[in-house]
Specification:
Strand content: 5-15%
Order of helices and strands: HHHEEHH
Number of helices: 5
Strand order of the largest sheet: 1-2
Structural class: mainly alpha
Largest sheet: 2 strands, antiparallel
Number of strands: 2
Length: 192
């Protein structure tokens, strides 16, 4: 292997501070969920649409959205990843991963879009739940519950992941500061 020249190494260092845009990830983060909401709204206003076809379409869009947000856009746009692991004894445990701050090269605007999309859609599905309840549309109410559950699972997963990342980061910072204080105290006693 050849060693990098100083110019090439400096170019790589300069690129590490740049942010990378992810327009495709942003598009797909919003596409499935917004499309599911639009199809739901259109189905309520256009009575000629097949009710069963609309429900299947919305459930498929919600499933695609759940998978995309959980496995792709959360990792790219927020630097977070979560999943549920089933242990050998049958117990369930949540596993969280996050990208280090130094590795985060995603523009803040895209991260905000991720979090706004993550929280806004379940709220809209809750509004749809109340309107279908008031309108006594119980089959549509079941569909809104599916939307709330699938979108809500991602909200819970990413909020827990974010909280876990913040706890571990503050714990590491506290340990590091404590270690430095002890080193300074020991250094002062040794030099006296």
């Amino acid at each position: 292997f050849r060693k990098m020249s100083d110019d090439v190494a400096k170019a790589f260092e300069d690129q590490s501070d740049r942010t990378e845009r992810h327009p495709v990830a942003v598009f797909f983060h919003l596409a499935f969920r917004v499309t599911a909401l639009v199809v739901y709204l259109l189905a309520n206003f256009i009575p000629s649409m097949s009710e069963m076809g609309v429900m299947i379409s919305i459930i498929l869009l919600l499933a695609l959205d759940f998978w995309t947000v959980k496995n792709v856009t959360g990792r790219i746009l927020a630097g977070l990843r979560w999943w549920n692991k089933i242990e050998e004894d049958g117990s369930s445990s949540w596993v969280f991963e996050w990208r280090k701050e130094k590795q985060n090269r995603v523009p803040a605007s895209e991260t905000y879009i991720f979090w706004i999309g993550l929280f806004a859609c379940p709220i809209i599905w809750i509004v749809f739940l109340f309107t279908s309840f008031v309108g006594l549309k119980f089959t549509w109410m079941m569909l809104t519950v599916v939307g709330i559950v699938l979108n809500g699972a991602n909200v819970v997963g990413y909020v827990q992941c974010r909280r876990d990342a913040g706890t571990k980061f503050s714990s590491m910072a506290t340990k590091y500061i404590g270690k430095k204080i002890i080193e300074q105290v020991c250094y002062m006693y040794i030099t006296q």
